[in-house]
Amino acid sequence: MNRKTLVIAAVVIAVLLPMWYVALHGEPPSEEIAIDQSVSEIQPLDGVLDTPNKLSPSQVGVIVWVALFGLFGTLAAVHRFMNRAVRPPDPDATTDGGRTGWSWIDTDHRWVVEYHDATESVEGLAAMGGLTVLAIVFAALFTGEYLTLARTQYFGLYATGMFLSLALLTVAYYAWFLPHVEVAEQRGHEP
């Protein structure tokens, strides 16, 4: 494992362990209020995962920190995916101060360092098509859940699937269908 990754993991653990210790000594769990099953078949608290009914503010804080660290790791992984897997080194790329002929970007104090044209590959088209279908399916499930009789326990799951597929659709478009341009600019120049 990389040394930088170990340092980051140690910092995250050093922050989360004391927070989790405090969170464990929070409010006691509350009692679940159930619907009379002889009257109705609806189970609004039923879900995919067995989750607590009530969380203390300390426990919510820990969950938020874990979610933020997870989001940061996801963003870093997506960025690496876009730069390494989709844009491999291109021998035809313009590099090291090559002029592109774009008057709005090539000036005496600003120039293109690296330019990779968009790959526009079949894989990108397939990924975007699959993610579009996935977003439509989750949107339909979300709408269907809303229109049925009070079965609202999967709203969060369907909304998460819909928003993640839309976010990955944006990532796929950026990775496969937009050119990559790196620009250098001279700082501190006189106007």
**Compute the gyration radius: what is it?**
25 Å
Please provide the ordered H/E string of secondary-structure elements.
HHEEHHE
Instruction: Name the structural class.
Output: mainly alpha
Helix percent reads: 40-55%
Give an account of the 3D structure.
The protein has 191 residues and is mainly alpha-helical. Helices cover 53% and strands 8% of the residues. It has a 3-stranded antiparallel sheet, with no helix packed on it. The mean pLDDT is 77. Keywords: Membrane, Transmembrane, Transmembrane helix. The chain crosses the membrane at residues 6-24, 62-82, 125-143, 155-176.
Compact summary:
This protein has about 190 residues and is mainly α. The protein is about 55% helix and about 10% strand. The protein has 4 helices and 3 strands; from the N terminus they run H-H-E-E-H-H-E.
Q: Which features does this protein show?
A:
mainly alpha, transmembrane, 191 residues, 8% strand, transmembrane helix, 53% helix, 3-stranded antiparallel sheet, membrane
